[in-house]
Automatic annotation (TrEMBL):
This is Small, acid-soluble spore protein Tlp. It is found in: Spore core. It holds the Pfam family Tlp. InterPro entries: SASP_thioredoxin-like (IPR017524). Keywords: Sporulation. It comes from the Bacteria. Residues 37-74 are annotated as: Disordered. Belongs to the Tlp family. Induction: Expressed only in the forespore compartment of sporulating cells.
Length: 74
């Protein structure tokens, strides 16, 4: 080939996106649970950092669940 980019891009395969997102949700929930265990032995400042991180994780889960709904519609 004489093209600048001789390789074709892979087609967009979204067939397993819902499954991947569900796995990500489960992994994130597990991380939250593990962080709760860690908090039992953490100091005040570390507890606050863990709480903040778990809050971000919960927000991420909500986003992933919305994306699951969107993907399931397609």
């Amino acid at each position: 080939m004489t093209d600048k980019y001789p390789y074709e891009p892979k087609p967009d395969d979204r067939s397993d996106n819902v499954e991947k997102l569900q796995d990500m949700v489960q992994d994130t929930i597990q991380n939250i649970e593990e962080a709760h265990e860690t908090m039992k032995h953490a100091s005040g400042d570390d507890k606050e950092k863990i709480k903040a991180k778990n809050k971000r994780r919960e927000e991420a889960i909500e986003g992933m669940r919305q994306e699951i709904k969107d993907e399931a519609k397609q």
